């Protein structure tokens, strides 16, 4: 049984102190706390059974067709794309990598536990968006204070509520979640899953945007 998750479930982490597959941390956002509880339940309920629990903690998945990436492209085309000023390290994961990892373990009886999936080099959200806009041919995002982005998220929620649209994730929570620095130790995934990535860095994966 495979559960897709993300390294933010261990709270703020870094290259120096990466996420390592712990289940006893207290993450910041409610989204991450909920996903961490799902991980715990998976291991609790499969303990002593023939089911092999697998948690794949993906970095920020990018590529054509990814909802948040396409939303950023839409905003950049209209010169509306903004990002906060403070830089935080982020684990990226090209879409082809995430798809390969999410399918492969189901055919193996040796795979069990938590695996962090991501690129070889950390980047910041600002660096990612700057490079993406360069590839798309648009100007780089405006740097604005985070409270302004938070206010815009509140406005989007109000518009959504007025229209009666259902939203699976609160817009304000997405903003706060995106500011949490995260980096997962991928050593185990490289050893037990696929040892070499097709597109190991953002620079090598930019053409897929």
Features:
209 residues, alpha/beta, Rossmann fold, three-stranded parallel sheet, two-stranded parallel ribbon, 8 helices, 14% strand, globular
Structural notes for this entry:
With 209 residues, the chain is an alpha/beta fold. It has one domain (2-208): NAD(P)-binding Rossmann-like Domain (Rossmann fold), CATH 3.40.50. Helices cover 41% and strands 14% of the residues. The protein contains eight helices and nine strands. Strands 1-2-7 form a three-stranded parallel sheet, with helices on both faces. Strands 3-6 form a two-stranded parallel ribbon. The protein is globular, with a radius of gyration of 18 Å. The mean pLDDT is 86.
Tally of separate helices? 8
Order of helices and strands: EHEEHEEEHEEHEHHHH
Determine and state the CATH class.
Answer: Alpha Beta
Indicate the overall shape. Answer: globular
Quote the average pLDDT. 86
Number of structural domains: 1
Shape-level CATH architecture: 3-Layer(aba) Sandwich
CATH topology: Rossmann fold
Number of strands: 9
List strands and helices in order, with pairings:
Blueprint lengths: L1 E4 L24 H17 L7 E5 L1 E3 L4 H11 L4 E3 L4 E2 L1 E3 H9 L9 E5 L5 E2 H12 L5 E3 L1 H18 L7 H8 L8 H6 L9 H4 L4
Parallel strand pairs: 1-2, 2-7, 3-6, 4-9
Antiparallel strand pairs: 5-8
Brief sketch in words of this structure:
The protein is an alpha/beta fold and 209 residues long.
């Amino acid at each position: 049984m495979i559960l897709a998750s993300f390294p933010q479930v261990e709270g703020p982490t870094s290259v120096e102190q990466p996420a390592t597959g712990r289940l006893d941390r207290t993450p910041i956002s409610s989204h991450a706390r909920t996903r961490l509880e799902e991980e715990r339940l998976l291991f609790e309920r499969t303990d002593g059974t023939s089911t092999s629990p697998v948690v794949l903690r993906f970095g920020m998945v990018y590529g054509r067709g990814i909802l948040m990436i396409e939303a950023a492209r839409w905003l950049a085309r209209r010169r509306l794309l903004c990002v906060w000023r403070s830089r935080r390290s982020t684990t990226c994961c090209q879409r082809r990598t995430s798809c390969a990892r999410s399918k492969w373990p189901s055919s193996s009886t040796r795979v069990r536990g938590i695996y962090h999936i991501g690129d070889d080099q950390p980047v910041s959200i600002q660096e990612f968006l700057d490079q993406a806009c360069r590839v798309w041919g648009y100007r780089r995002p405006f740097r604005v204070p985070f409270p302004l982005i938070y206010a815009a998220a509140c406005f989007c929620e109000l518009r959504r509520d007025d229209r009666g649209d259902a939203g699976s994730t609160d817009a304000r929570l997405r903003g706060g979640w995106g500011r949490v620095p995260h980096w997962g130790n991928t050593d185990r995934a490289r050893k037990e899953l696929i040892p070499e990535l097709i597109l190991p860095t953002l620079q090598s994966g930019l053409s897929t945007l």
